[in-house]
Fold this protein.
Amino acid sequence: MLEISHLGFQYPGTSRAALTDVSLTASRGEILGLLGPNGAGKTTLISHLSAGLPVQTGSITIDGQPFAQVHRANPTRISVAPQEYAFYPMLTVLENLRCFSAACGLASVQRRQRVQESLDFAQLNQFQGTQAKNLSGGLKRRLNLAIAVLPKPDLYVFDEPTVGVDPQSRAFILDAIKALARQGTAVIYTSHYMEEIEAVADHVAILDGGRVLRYDSLSSLLQAGALEVRFSVNEALPSQTHAALAAFGEIAQSGQAVEIRLHAGARLSALISLLESSDVDVSDLQVGRATLENIFLALTDRQLRDQ
Ligand SMILES: Nc1ncnc2c1ncn2[C@@H]1O[C@H](COP(=O)(O)OP(=O)(O)OP(=O)(O)O)[C@@H](O)[C@H]1O
């Protein structure tokens, strides 16, 4: 559906590209999760999809047609729900939806129907007379969601749709977004919360420094090959032991903590025997499966949010 190919972008007056060689696809019926720390390039990427930024290098197509052309002909085919609240605080929920349905260019009969469907979808019926500024954080996010679904687009882009919401609203929003994909729409979902991406995404792209570090199906990312062994040592691993362990997987040592991400097919028992027979004093040995969080840290060497 959406195909981003070798996209590059540099803001005028800056010395470094904000996006370099980004290639991704979003398919109907699927959720593409975009993960990246601050400054990774997520907003720059999303801004291209709201036509806020022009394509400098590479291409973006929708069903094979250049994005700019599709957007010009039918701007509501792609619905971008931004991080910020995108409604009028002084208007009620219903007034906001009526206003945005008119802006979508829907015919008046259709408008009434879509407003009602959007209220139902975001479960905002009982709040339709409430001024938007008086809604709780979770309800404000649901109003953003209701506005995004008004035009029934082919592609949704949600930029951090659960920031500042209570756990109940978060669960509701995640379920609602999964329902949109199940109805056959393509969805791009950006979040700093890896557990959310694990909960909703079919494919995941990990961005850092404007580049795609990893792009794969969630199941492949989390598959059996990503077994991890963690332990502590008193000193740096001797080079011979390091070399022997490297045959089992990727080694990362930070101070006393060592982490080995096993290659697919590497035998755990053989690795443990090797550690036992080595001169290294190993303690706190743990074995676990990689979570998206471990994978992210291993790839970027940093947390998703700057501390
Ligand atoms: N308007 C701008 N002018 C110049 N540089 C910019 C501009 N907007 C973003 N950048 C730079 O582009 C790079 C990517 O930023 P971007 O905002 O796309 O990242 P992000 O992943 O959305 O980060 P965050 O999670 O903090 O929103 C950063 O180095 C940033 O400083």
